[in-house]
Write a structure and sequence with these properties.
Helix content is 35%, strand content 32%. The chain is α/β, with parallel strands linked by helices. Helix 1 packs parallel to helix 3. The N and C termini lie close together (9 Å). The relative contact order is 0.15.
Amino acid sequence: MECIPAIDVRDGRSVRLLQGDYAKETVYGDPVEQARSYADGGASRLHVVDLDAARSGNGENDAVVAAIAAAISVPIEVGGGVRSLERASSLLGYGVDRVVVGTAAVEDPSLLVELAGRYPGRVAVGLDHRSVVSDGASRRELAVRGWEVGTDLDLLEVLANLASLELAGVIVTDIGRDGTLAGPDLEGLAAVLEATGLPVIASGGIGTVADLVALRELAASGRRIEAVIVGKALLSGAISLGEALVACTA
């Protein structure tokens, strides 16, 4: 299982939000220096999110993304505001290895089809969800536009529509766990593994080495988690990058 450190960028700075709330932000400094640290520490890939673009659809932090891509030799994937062919092409032109499409995958499926066809294996889909209860039943509802807008769409239903596309994978984020260090949604991720043949990348809630081991050992329908994105746990010191790398590959 690949361990992918996360760098969230807002106003040019490395930050972390609690449960996707822009009012609950912790600032961690220079994202380029953070990227260098992770690359030097042995990370095989980095996950970069432009939080400003996630809301606006513009590339407010493209200069930061380009600087990160130029500063390190390991591949990076970038999400946040990838809602047009032009923006995706621009990011890939900066040296980004793959782009992550979230809002557009829900609101403009034809664009996702076009991107996957033009850049096979270089487009991942971000499926960010919250657990909601409706008529006494719990389901995982997708959220878009910086996690600020609900969709009334179920995670597994949307996942089924992606089967025919040549994607790098699906990044499944439990918004309610993101930034909490409370542990991943193992039950939900097992359901995702059963529902798709695409590579599954887990995100949200990682807080301990035991969480990483549990994800590495999770299996459903003969499939396992391809990779895990780790953010606050690394920044807060709850887990060191070395510990995370060992736990993911041991």
